[in-house]
Amino acid sequence: MNSAALIPLFPLLGFLVIGLFGKQLKSERLIGIIGSGAILASFAIAVSIFFSFLGMPGEERSMHVPVYTWISTGAFTVNIAYQVDQLSLLFTLIITGIGFLIHVYSIGYMHGDKSFSRFFAYLNLFVFMMLNLVLADNFLLTFLGWEGVGLASYLLIGFWYERKFEGTGIVYTGDAAKKAFIVNRIGDFGVLIAMFILFNTFGTLSYSEIAAQAPTVWAPGTAMVSVVTLLLFLGCTGKSAQIPLGIWLPDAMAGPTPVSALIHAATMVTSGIFLIARNNVLFAMSPSTMAVVTGIGITTALIAGTIGIVQNDIKKVLAYSTVSQLGFMFTALGVGAFTAGVFHVMTHAFFKALLFLGSGSVIHGMHEQQDIQKMGGLKKYMPTTYKTFLIGTLAISGIPFFSGFFSKDEILWMGFLNGSPILWGVGAVAAFTTAFYMWRLTSLTFLGEERFDHHHVHPHESPATMTIPLIVLAVLSAFGGFLGVPHVIGHALHIPNLLEGWLDPIFERGMSFLPKHVGDHAMLEWGLMGASTVIAIAGIMLAKSIYSKGTERAEGIAARMKGIYTLLWNKYYVDEVYNFAVIGPILAVSRDFLWKIFDVKIIDGIVNGSASTVGAGAAALRKIQSGVAQNYALLMMVGIIAFLAWVTLGR
Amino acid sequence: MGIDLFGSLPLVVIWLALGGVGIVIQAFVRDNTRLVFGYYISTLIATGVLAALTFGHTGLTFDGMVTMGGSGAFFDILFCVTGILTMLAARPYLQREDSEIDEFYTLLVSAVSGMMLMAHANNLVVLFVGVELMSISFYVMAGFFRKSIRSIEAALKYFLLGAFATGFLVYGMALVYGSTNALDYATITSVVRAGTTPFPMLLAAGVTLMAVGLCFKIAAFPFHQWAPDVYQGSPTVVSAFMSTAGKAAAFSAFIPAFTMLMPVGAGASYVMNMQLALAVIAAVTMLVGNISAVAQSNVKRMLAFSSVAHAGYLLMGIVSGTAAGHQAIVFYLTAYTFMQLGAFVIVSILERENDGHLEFSDYAGLSKTHPVLAFLMAMFMFSLAGIPPFAGFFGKYMLFIAAIDSGFTWLTIIAVVSSVISVYFYLGLVVKMYFSDPVGEGHATNPGTAALTLGVAAAFTVLLGVLPSVLQSMFTAFH
């Protein structure tokens, strides 16, 4: 068997060992080593495959790794098989690499928690499911992983199930977990229907076979391919928190912070991007779906970015930022810039994991305080956290030569080139809000005067298990962008775009359905790049001028622009609108009709009726089962005579 | 022809171990149950390993009377594994009941040797010898608690009705022989296919009576009534063994015998009638088994009726008459063996002397007093009810598909309906264990080696549900 099959195996083993024997193991150190070691082993294998791929020509960098036949009945066969290629390997490296760092970080962060072993078991389960999602060679196995990460996410959001958590219609962390799970169900339904249609059409669920057959079965732009891709995209909006199903992600912050970093920033929420990238041929065949993806992506990027400006919970700011950044990624996919979208997945994984872990370090040092209004001046208490967080902020804001600059700029540029100047404009505004809220966050947390209660709170730097992952991620956030240097810069500095060369064979076929732009736009690209840099710096400067002295000036501005402020503070009332327009009516119908009338009267009536019929039958049969052997022999004899008569005399 | 020594090894070894060495050990070594237990466990392990080795070595031996390798070898492994698991569960159980006598293990292995003969039979006489060897061992095992009136009653009832049924089986064989002039499967099937018998009516009657005899062994309606009484009265581990390995053996003989006697699409006019009659028997069996189980308040008796119902599901594979149907039977039998055995063994662990602690109400709150046993029991119940991802789901699925593909959609609908009925009592037990409060003090249990049985049964119940293809891939070697 190929070593690639071992990649998901190690986290599974880790989950089983910790899950079954965690309580007996007792030692936190041992559990931590098993949990992190499992991920490290997978990472090592992924790295070795990566290097062996590097030695091959581009089109050969793909392995099909069958593990076993899962279901085989008639025409329906599903294999547990992995497709290791440039795309899945890149995701695997992100998942296991960052996953390993976050596992190590969690050893420090979860120290002393009464459910330490349960946490690591769930975390390993998550990684196992996530690896299945990206490595699968068919829709069904991906869907298994898709549901599996949903389960792990549910378990981890509600990890501290007895804790309170505030949100619209939410009291406990468990409610937030439920919200995430239920909202995702709606998206999963779309994916399921899409899978049914695909199987019905192609008789297979294998990615490569569908991609090969699709152009011959469906003409590009036909309604059917749009329906399928839109249904798939519905699933993506659930998993990746886009409009209209994005409302669960901010509440998912109820989970422990390493969970927010791993699941709700770096990996799981990018599943939607993965699914589209994996099926780039299908999506590229439907211009209308691509337009929808673009529209949803850019709108989400802008709306989530503006909400992020006014939030006061350190993790919620980062959550809205994640939603916004995911919007950028979808925008890239929508305009056919698949490589740029995946590139942003990677850089975002670096800096958003860094920011979340940094916020976790702050929360840890501030004794579970998450309100940035009650922080300030932490720079001197937590120097390492501050420095790494600053790098993360610069990276996400798009300051030149940090990783986020390259990927975000690539997206904006492709939006301009393949879309329209308006797309670029909206994206630039969203990028401006990013720079603004991130600097606001950094400023209120680490700079300025100390607004916390010195008698009760004694901020301190976090232990090495937490700061070392921060440093590693900071290095990646700073330099990771050089893997995908835009052509104009690369041309000037003689750096090739490594990532594009790497991913080309994956997206080649999809790209062939999209219009091509030829010509030299170097001057324009330089110009826009300069403009977006100015915008990022402007965002930071504006935030600096408002928040350098604490929150007073901001309160003044908020008072003057009360309408907009309230609108943003209440997140455009999306939760309330959903409650009023969707959840309320569903609840009412469920309670007043489905439960009280349909269930109680009709279903229960049928069930009770059939139950009493069965009961009467059972009583009659009981009489026949008399316990007297002679009677049994008599029934046998009757049976034999009837049987004989039927077989020999029947026609 | 002659004898192919390698292919005959499983059968030869178990006979020599029983009739050669085993008898000597028991004649000269008194009251050493540990030695006898160890000896017969090793016998079954050796036989199972040999069966595995000869799996790919198909053909005929003993002058064409016995088959080698293939499905026969697969069943050998299943019987040996079931035998070993039963012995592991039986030792602590018998010790607790103060009835551990070494003959128990001898009888069990003797029954296994009979089952193996049934699975390997390629000749009516060999089939008959196998059936009787197994049945007579069972009669004695059912009455093994010789001081318990229920156990004696069970043995006597089983023996009386069993003898009655055997009469029909052997009469059926005689009629088949008389009308085809052959005992050998290949010759009989060629006569049936060609339709050259001078006595078509007698052939049809003979086939029917053989079906009666085998339907008795699998406990199908209307020849099922002994099963609940016998399974309830027998020592629990014996019920476990009879209702799993015994049923598997009957089907292992049923499949080749009816591939021979009822070749679908053959010239003989009775074939269609036979197929339809068996379909009706299957339908009534599952309904009667499940509906009767609903009314039970005794867990052991509920499992007995559940075993009747499962005979109905399994018969669907015979009715379909296709290779897919037969493979579905083998798959479901394997799955069923582990889940039913597991459930019975849990009952045997919780049981107290004088048939105590067998009621549904005794299982209230088991999740609190015995969380592990309750969890495993719940798993076996879910699997028996056919709920994924456990083994029972895939088995039922394969059987239903086979029946639909052979045009028996109505039978599948009845099977689905009766499955729904069965959910009531299977999950009823789960509800009792998990959502009721324990009554009184939970008593201590000591599963001993039965824990091993449960572990293996649970592992296979999950494994066959998650990895059905492992077993399915073996079927390609059957034909």
Structure report:
- The complex is a heterodimer of chains A (651) and B (479).
- With 651 residues, chain A is mainly α.
- Chain A has a domain of 76 residues.
- Chain A is 73% helix and 4% strand.
- Chain A is built from 26 helices and four strands.
- In chain A, the strands form two sheets. In chain A, strands 1-2 form a two-stranded antiparallel ribbon. A two-stranded antiparallel ribbon of chain A has the order 3-4.
- In chain A, a hairpin with a 2-residue loop joins strand 3 and strand 4.
- The model of chain A has no long low-confidence stretch (mean pLDDT 88).
- Chain B has one domain.
- Chain B contains 19 helices and two strands.
- Chain B has a two-stranded antiparallel ribbon.
- In chain B, strand 1 and strand 2 form a beta hairpin.
- Chain B is globular and about 70 Å long.
- The chains are: A mainly alpha (651), B mainly alpha (479).
- At the A-B interface, strand 1, helix 25 and helix 26 of A face helix 6, helix 8, helix 9, helix 11 and helix 16 of B.
Brief summary of the model shown:
The complex is a heterodimer of chains A (651) and B (479). Chain A has 651 residues and is mainly alpha-helical.
